[in-house]
Specification:
It is a single chain. It contains five helices and twelve strands. The protein has 218 residues and is of the alpha/beta class. The protein has one domain: 3-Layer(aba) Sandwich (Rossmann fold), CATH 3.40.50.1820. Strands 1-2-4-3-5-6-9-10 form an eight-stranded mixed sheet, sandwiched between helices. A two-stranded antiparallel ribbon has the order 7-8.
Length: 218
Amino acid sequence: MATLRSFFLNGKVGKLEALLNEGAAHARYAALIAHPHPAGGGTMHNKVVYHAMKTLSNLGLSVLRFNFRSVGASEGEHDNGHGEQDDVRTALDWLDSEFGKPILFTGFSFGSAVGMRACCPDPRVPGLVALGVPAGHDTRRYEYPWLASCAKPKLFISGGRDEYGPKAEVEAIVARAAGDNTLAWIPEADHFFQSSDGPKLDAMQAALRDWVTTHFLT
């Protein structure tokens, strides 16, 4: 079992609560995971985030999770995805200082939108994963024009019944993204990878594990 460390990152607007699952010393990569929208109760303890962490940890990577500003014990105020990009950069800086390894980014929902925006231009991040990439819901809309210049390998995993990312809209987002992109659909799953037949988190984990192994560990 990987050692779990609890601590704070020094963010631009104060301390950010963080957890690190330490990986193998010989691992070639570290990993960062960003959580879903705080307005919906999103934290680094979210079930999807936790299962993504377990997948990457089982591959030997050291995995950092953190709470965005205003969430849990993190300081600051919610900034509608703008200042949260600085939170992601703070986490990248810490991982780079601690391990000095390339960092694979994974984000869930809001975390994927904010994190990809921050990580695409960052040379320390060679690959990105978006779980449940959001297109919009009610009055909240997400646009990704900057993905057209992000040529890094990207994996998009979404549920076939994702209420925040309808299939046609997610396919359009991926089609406009530059580079080597993989889109994996989890049949019958909703935004949280649940279905009427039970959880589909194992299918999400399998898609994540296979992509990371194929693109970065072989």
